[in-house]
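Q: Could you fold this chain for me?
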Amino acid sequence: MAGGKSQSKQGKPQDEGCRLYLVTPPALEPRAFADTLARALDAGDVAAVQLRLKDVSDDALKRAVEVLRPVAQSRDVAFLLNDRADLAVQTGCDGAHLGQEDGDHAAARELLGDLMLGISCHGSRHLAMEAGEIGADYVAFGAFFPTSTKVTEHKAEPDVLEWWSEMFELPSVAIGGITPENCGPLVRAGADFLAVVSAVWNHPEGAAAGVRAMNAAIAAA
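A: Sure. Below is the predicted structure, expressed as C-alpha cells.
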C-alpha cells in the first residue's frame, strides 16, 4: 500500500487498479484464525490485513498480533492494527488504522514514523483533506452499504471516491457492507482498496472462496 500527502494531482497517473483489504472479525481465537487467514491470503491478491478486535486487553491484543502478524508479513501483505498506534509500533506491525475518535492523529503520525497510518473519514471530504494534511498514508470512506460488523453511524456515497480519485494522489479505501455483488460502483468510482469483513470470513465456502469471489468481482468491474 503506497502512501503520500493529499496534494492535488498533476495529471492522472496510470491506474494501478483496485485491491482487496481484509479486516478481521471483531472477535477471534488467534491460533485457530491463523489457519483461516493463511488460506485466505494464499487464495489471491490481498494488499493488507487489519487486526480489529474489540473489548480485549492489551495482552490479548499483543498475543493476537504475535500469532497473526507473521502470517501476513511472510506473504508480503501489510499488517495493520486498529485503534492503537502505540501497540502497532511495539509489536512490529506495518502500521495502524485510526477512527476519528481514536486519539490525536498528528501525534500518532509522529509516533508511527515511517509506518503506515490510515484514517477513517466517514463520507467527509473535509476530514479526508485533514487526514492527508497530517500525513495519512490512506483515507477510508464508508459505510457505503449496511453492515452487521458494527453500528453504521455514517454513510458515504460513491461520488466521494470519484472526487477524491480525481483530485488527490493519496489512496482511498472503501468500507462498509461491501460484497462481490455490490462492489462494482465503488471500483469504478476510483477506490484504490476495498475493505471487507463478512464477504470473506462468512463466505459459505470458506475464506479462500471469499477472497477469490471478491477479486473476481473487482476484476470484472
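A (continued): The longest helix spans residues 58-73.
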